[in-house]
Amino acid sequence: MGKFSARGLKFNIPSIVDGLFGLPTPAGRQRTWTIRDNYKRYSAAQAEPERRALKYITYNTTLPMAARVQAQMKLSGMPSNTRMTMVKNRCVMTGKGRSILSKFKMCRFVFKEMAKRGEIPGVRRANW
């Protein structure tokens, strides 16, 4: 794989996606979505301290209005990928974005199959 560069950050694609829990990466379009989602997670994590500080300044009513407006303008000028709301939970096995069990980071189909085979510690199919 080649290098992936976005907004001045350069990193290898396999180092982002292939390192997730040592599981195989999805193929095709799901791989692209997974890479994009991981980049959004990385960007949000890097900008989180600055976003929190700016939000604190914005909502602090004891500060002068000029400082609060300046913080709000700087906050609105930040890239949209730095917001945690842009991050979507995806299955680490298939890359699907729906019906994700967030505790296991898997879609329900993969979870069901792995539970049936006994590959998830502490999880069994119900029998009664």
TrEMBL record:
InterPro entries given in the database record: Ribosomal_uS14 (IPR001209)
Keywords: Ribonucleoprotein, Ribosomal protein
Top-level taxon in the UniProt lineage: Eukaryota
Name of a matching Pfam family: Ribosomal_S14
Family: Belongs to the universal ribosomal protein uS14 family.
NCBIfam families: PRK08881.1 (NF006477)
Protein name per the record: Ribosomal protein S14
